[in-house]
Amino acid sequence: MPQPSAAALEQLAQFLKRFPESDADGDGKLSEKEAAAYRKALRNSRGKVAGKKGTFVPDPGWKEKKFPEHAVCYLTPGQLMKQYGGDFPDLPKSENGALRIVGTGHSFMRPGYSTLPAICEAAGFTQPLHTHTGGGMTGSVRYKWEQENGIFGFDKRPKPILLPAIANAGWDAMLWGPYDQDQPEYYRCWIDYCLKYNPDMKFYLSDAWIRLWPFMGGKPPKDESEYTAGLLTKLESEKHELFKGFITRMQAEYPGKIFIIPTSLAVTKAAVLQVKGKLPGVESLHKLVTGKERSIWKDHRGHLGTGFDRLEGYVFYSTLYKKSPELIKNEINLPGNKQGYPSTELDRVFRKIAWQAVIENPLSGVVDSDGDGHGD
User: Fold this and answer.
1) What is the tens place of the pLDDT at every residue in 303-317?
2) Is 152 exposed, middle or buried (0-12, 13-18, 19+ CB in 10 A)?
3) Is CATH 3.40.50.1110 the right assignment for the domain spanning 64-364?
């Protein structure tokens, strides 16, 4: 494949500087494919940068009482099957407790989605999981609703993956990843559609994790000395309050239905342990500051470093199944473990702090009063 010219590389660098979220894989470099995908995403959603860089203006149709008449969500289950087929699992409710899960999300959800099946396999069951994901904005709940329905920028060009599945099969839970400027209406449409066909479903929003510097306009410090346990805890507290305000409003509308997957608290707990020198084998907080591969964060976008995918997977498992991953006795066939990293000792720490994060965050809905590793 021919390499981009020097002029093209400079254009890509300028595009990345203007739209940092276009770097879908978070490697700090923008490919021509990523740039093209982001331009298409902006066109499809009729978005534009307004004022502050990265501030997205959604289609005004979101403020209307109804979506356009041709929206896929208005089709019957039979029409959905006839037009779009049934490329999804259709399973009866599990006798062993396995939840049938659908989900959207971006690259911050990928670690959890990729490791959860292996964790569940070790716990003794197969995890049904049907997702529609994308990078950055293209994995947001708003974008996926527009794309699946063929509305607004996707006008009459639908790509329904989850809607036919939700209408024609049984599901127990839906998972989402958060995105900047999320609004309640972006979630209500998914919730109402799911409950129409699966009234007992529950919904889980990941709170992602803190960043050590602002994504827009921020840059790495010279060293990590400013990141004390106190500062990290403060950043986590501020993030929790932000999500608390949003999720409690949604919980008031849908009592007993919506919960937080507290990955952020788990990552912060890991960061505090690292600062104190108590995170086995982890060399630093951020690779961009120290250059060390074995770090918690690896790039400007804030993606997790090597081995930390399993931490998010453990938080997913703990929240969904209300069980501590410390109780899993079988070997978990997870990727990684290069040159003994993450070590068995570090993996044990991940399992412990995942469960701690879940039972300490009241928005998760999980309580372990007697400390036996099982939710009450």
Assistant:
1) 999 999 999 999 999
2) buried
3) yes
Distance of alpha carbon 208 from alpha carbon 238, whole angstroms:
13
User: b/e map of 184-221 (b: 16 or more CB within 10 Å)?
Assistant: eebbebbbebbeebbeebbbbbbbbbbebeeeeeeeee
> For the chain, how many residues are written?
376
Q: Which residues lie closer than 8 Å to 95 by C-beta, 6 or more apart?
A: none
Angstrom distance (rounded) from CA 304 to CA 121 = 23
Rounded distance between C-alpha atoms, residue 78 and residue 167, angstroms? 9
Q: Residues 155-203: pLDDT tens digits? A: 999 999 999 999 999 999 999 999 988 999 999 999 999 999 999 999 9
Confidence check: pLDDT of 371 > 60: yes
322 closest CA partner among 359, 260, 375, 373: 375
What per-residue confidence (pLDDT) applies to 348? Answer: 96
Preceding amide of 164 cis, omega within 30: no
Q: What is the radius of gyration, based on Cα positions, of the chain?
A: 21
Residues 63, 187: Cα–Cα separation, whole Å: 14
Instruction: Name, in order, each residue with C-beta under 8 angstroms of 129's C-beta and a sequence gap of 6 or more.
Output: 101, 103, 113, 116, 117
| Domain residue ranges in the chain | 64-364
Q: What angle do CA 192, 202, 180 make, to 5 degrees?
A: 70
> 309-321 and 344-360 are packed helices; what angle lies between their axes, rounded to 10 degrees?
40
Cβ within 8 Å of residue 263, ≥6 positions away: 112, 206, 207, 208, 209, 311, 312, 315, 316, 357
What's phi and psi for 252, nearest 5 deg? -65, -35
Calculate ∠ Cα 181-44-169, nearest 5°. Answer: 80
21 CA to centre of own chain? 15
Lowest mean pLDDT among 39-43, 161-165, 167-171, 214-218: 39-43
Phi, psi of 295 (to 5 degrees): -125, 165
Give which of 311, 274, 273, 308 is closest to 289, Cα–Cα.
274
